[in-house]
Every structure is written in C-alpha cells, then in structure tokens.
Specification:
The chain has seven helices and four strands; from the N terminus they run E-H-H-E-H-H-E-H-H-E-H. By secondary structure, the chain is an alpha+beta fold. The chain has a single domain (5-137), classed as Alpha-Beta Plaits (2-Layer Sandwich). Strands 2-3-1-4 form a four-stranded antiparallel beta sheet. The longest helix is centred in the C-terminal third of the chain and has 11 residues, at 122-132. It is globular. The relative contact order is 0.26. Bound molecules: adenosine-5'-triphosphate and magnesium ion. Adenosine-5'-triphosphate (ATP) is lined by residues 54, 59, 63, 93, 111-112, 114, 117-118, 120. Adenosine-5'-triphosphate binds next to strand 4.
C-alpha cells in the first residue's frame, strides 16, 4: 500500500440522515478512488480502541457511545496527498467553523456528530485501514 491513502468513516449521524450516497458522490467528484468499502457497525470496544488517543478528553464517553450507536460506512481512499486532501474536503471538526462546500458544512449535525472521520497522518491511515479491513478486502 502506498502513502497516498486515507481512511474514512461516514459516521452514524450521516448514515441515519440518509447521506451515504451524497457523501460518496462528493468523495468521488473530488478525485478519490475507492480501495475498500463496507457498511458495518462498531462495537463499544471497537469505538474505544479506535479513538483511544482521546481517552482523557471530556467528550470520550459521548464519542464512543455515538460512534457505536448505529451503522457506519468504512472506506479506504486513494489520491495523491490523500490525508491532507481529504481533511480539506471534510472541513473543520466543528461544522459551524467548516468552510462552505465541505462535507461537514453540508452534512454534519454538530461538533460531536460531525458526519465523517478522516485520518490525521499517513501512519494512522494505514493503522485505521487495517483495523477495519482484512488484506483481501483492500484493492
Ligand atoms: P476525526 O478524527 O473523527 O476525523 P477530527 O480529527 O476532526 O475528527 P479530533 O480532534 O480527532 O477531530 O476528534 C475526534 C472526534 O471527537 C471528532 O470528530 C468529534 O466527533 C469528537 N469531538 C472532538 N471534539 C469534540 C468536542 N469538543 N465535543 C464533542 N465531541 C468532540
Ligand atoms: Mg482526528
């Protein structure tokens, strides 16, 4: 796998709000290829592990509860400079501060229920992709 990949989840709010198709459309229009894709649901243990860097933050409990509350779409995406390009496409963590036209500005409910996840480094993109997908699910 090259470093031109990032990992994303369409979070439970955006799945429940019916935005899977629109968000995948934005991702595709922005020039990302799909290397892996599935509808799945995190257990509480999965969500705790995935976000364990935030374990000491006051919102950790809420975050774990939310991320395990319903189905998500997990995907591995490919583009040159994928991590940075994808974080530009999704916008700021808080949708109220996200730029016009970004996925979070368009589809997020709030700072906690913010529609999508995007990896923050090449190293974490690989770790997160492997957390969700087996080798034969990544193309
Ligand atoms: P993500 O890692 O999901 O792509 P991010 O990198 O923009 O988001 P982080 O700082 O890594 O933001 O926070 C992880 C997630 O924790 C956020 O996406 C959001 O769902 C939640 N979160 C962050 N800050 C807050 C907050 N102040 N209150 C509630 N939830 C928060
Ligand atoms: Mg993050």
């Amino acid at each position: 796998m090259t470093s031109n990949i990032t990992f994303t989840m369409i979070k439970p709010d955006a799945v429940a709000d019916g935005h899977i198709g629109a968000i995948l459309g934005k991702i595709s229009e922005a020039g990302f290829g799909i290397k892996a894709l599935k509808l799945t649901q995190l257990t509480v243990a999965d969500a705790k592990k995935f976000y364990e860097v935030h374990a000491e933050r006051p919102f950790y409990g809420e975050l774990v509860e939310f991320m395990s509350s319903g189905p998500i779409v997990a995907a591995v995406l490919e583009k040159e400079n994928a991590v940075d390009e994808f974080r530009k496409l999704i916008g700021a963590t808080n949708p109220a501060e996200a730029a016009e036209g970004t996925i979070r500005k368009l589809f997020a409910r709030s700072i906690g229920e913010n529609a999508v996840h995007g990896s923050d480094s090449d190293e974490n993109a690989l770790i997160e992709a492997q957390f969700h997908f087996s080798g034969r699910e990544i193309f």
